[in-house]
Every structure is written in structure tokens, then in C-alpha cells.
Design a protein that fits this description.
Length: 120
């Protein structure tokens, strides 16, 4: 069976003086995503030692779950996130639908298609 999962690592530069805002926003986003998006399998945030760079690892059941997440994000959190961070790099793994690619296009993502390996 084909793996329909989509995942990505999103690298964000913290805007000057906005780390505390980002922490509050992240808590709100994690809570909403965990509560309302059953197709979101992982939603994990990490911060560099100097608190200047944040990585967000996200994994979704399928492209429909990605679209649901992006719709919720756009309606509820996009303005606050843009105030707190500057997107640096988005690396997407899997085979997302054309709709997902259209929704992510403004971020200039790099797409990495499956080549080999295994899952447990």
C-alpha cells in the first residue's frame, strides 16, 4: 500500500523581540491542532540555543489532512505567525496533492519525493 502521509520541516527565523509572542502563539496553535485536527499525526516545535531559529516538524495522514490544517491555520493564526517569524525554508516529504502544492506555493517549498527506505 502506498504511503499517503505528508510531512515537512518548516524553518522560521524569530523576528527581533518576538520570542515570547512566538511561545504564546505556539501554545495556542498546538492546542487547537491537537484538539481539532485528527489527521495531524505530529506537530512538534524546536528552538535553537540562541532562540533565533525555530523548526516545526509536521506530519499528516494525507493531503486532505494538510488542507484542513492549512485552512485552520489561515483562518486563526497566520497573521500572528507572520508578526513573530520570517519563513526561511520549507522542505516537504511525500507526494502531496496538487491542492496542497498550490496552497504552499507562496512559501517556495522544496519537495522531496520518496526514494527508498523503510518504516516501522
Amino acid at each position: 500500500m502506498d504511503n499517503l502521509e505528508i510531512s515537512w520541516v518548516f524553518e522560521l527565523a524569530i523576528n527581533p523581540g518576538r520570542f515570547e509572542d512566538l511561545k504564546t502563539l505556539m501554545a495556542d496553535m498546538v492546542e487547537a491542532t491537537q484538539k481539532n485536527e485528527v489527521g495531524t499525526l505530529n506537530y512538534e516545535w524546536a528552538i535553537s540555543d540562541d532562540q533565533q531559529v525555530c523548526h516545526v516538524y509536521e506530519r499528516y495522514r494525507d493531503s486532505a489532512a494538510v488542507v484542513a490544517h492549512l485552512e485552520s491555520f489561515g483562518a486563526n493564526f497566520s497573521v500572528r505567525l507572520r508578526e513573530a517569524v520570517t519563513p526561511v525554508r520549507l522542505v516537504v516529504y511525500g507526494t502531496p496533492s496538487a491542492q496542497v502544492k498550490d496552497n504552499l506555493a507562496g512559501l517556495g517549498p522544496v519537495y522531496m519525493a520518496p526514494l527508498g527506505g523503510f518504516r516501522r
